[in-house]
Amino acid sequence: MASDWRRYARTLRRFWGTALAGQLEYQLNLLIELLAMAGNLAGSLFVLSLFYGNGSGGSGPGLGGWSWPEAQVVLGVYTLLDGVSSTLLRPNLSRIVTHVQEGTLDFVLLKPIDSQFWLSARTVSPAGLPEIAVGLALMLGAGLKVGARLDAATLALVAVLLLSSTLILYALWFLLATTSIWFVKTWNATEVLRAALAAGRYPITAYPAGLRTLFTLVLPVAFLTTVPAEAVLGRVSGPWALASLGVAAGFLLLSRAFWRFALRFYTSASS
Fold first, then answer.
1. Domain that holds residue 252
2. Using CB atoms within 10 A of its CB, is residue 243 exposed (0-12), middle (13-18) or buried (19+)?
3. Contact (CB, 8 A) for 100 and 182
């Protein structure tokens, strides 16, 4: 078992080293991505400020009971996760459709390595790293504004819940990408999912009861951003934290089982 972990770690290091070397050859693209990230964040902050009267949160009503700095914590978590998507998820999972369309999935399945691992971690893009850094700074900075106690225990809990959020986000994208084995073109469904996940920019309590139920029990947006934000603010409850871990484990196992199920219906290009 330990040797398998070391083998996968070496493979991952080689994957990402090669990908970063190739990406860094096009530095202008990185600058464009950085400007786009700054524009998206500025737009998100502007839209959020509209709920707070003068834009500073001083006089406007709260959004779902969240003050302006507290809502910024949620936006910071969302920005961080969007950076993770740009760095790891989109560059890899968007190619599953291409592999199915062009028949190159055959070569992936023949490799002496787990196919889901290969498809999920083959490449990495540094374009999302600034977004991760900005999201982290916004999340922690806004938390300190409201007096959050960011001690070692709190930061450890936040890190665990952010990992859970990342796994949930990965599983959702992978489940959708896997359906390309039947439907090939899944771009429209991908855009619908991205639009739904954008609801995580705001606290879950800002939505009507029906949407809160949907974003908690069906599409777990609440566990993506609101629960980690609550942990930053030091007010997440034990059941919610455990539920986040359970949802992450459940979706991860579901993505694994669904991938194995889908491969039974995959017709290779050579057959």
1. 2-263
2. middle
3. no
* Number of domains making up the chain: 1
pTM of the model: 0.88
270 assigned to some structural domain: no
Query: By C-alpha distance, which of 225, 267, 217 is closest to 100?
Result: 267
Provide the residue type at 259 as one letter.
W
CA–CA gap between residue 50 and residue 267 (Å, rounded): 51
Residue 271 included in any domain: no
Decide: 68 and 52 in contact? Cβ < 8 Å: yes
d(Cα 153, Cα 140) in Å, to the nearest integer? 15
Give the pLDDT of the chain (271 residues) as one tens digit per residue. 666 778 888 888 888 888 777 766 666 666 777 777 778 778 888 878 777 765 444 444 577 889 889 999 999 999 999 999 988 998 898 888 888 888 888 889 988 889 999 999 988 888 888 889 999 999 999 999 998 888 999 999 999 999 999 999 999 999 988 988 888 666 666 677 777 788 888 999 989 999 889 888 888 999 999 999 999 999 999 999 999 999 999 999 999 999 999 999 888 765 5
Let me know if residue 219 belongs to a domain.
Answer: yes
First CA to last CA across the chain, in angstroms?
A: 34
Asked if residue 19 is part of any domain, the answer here is yes
DSSP state letter for 125 = -
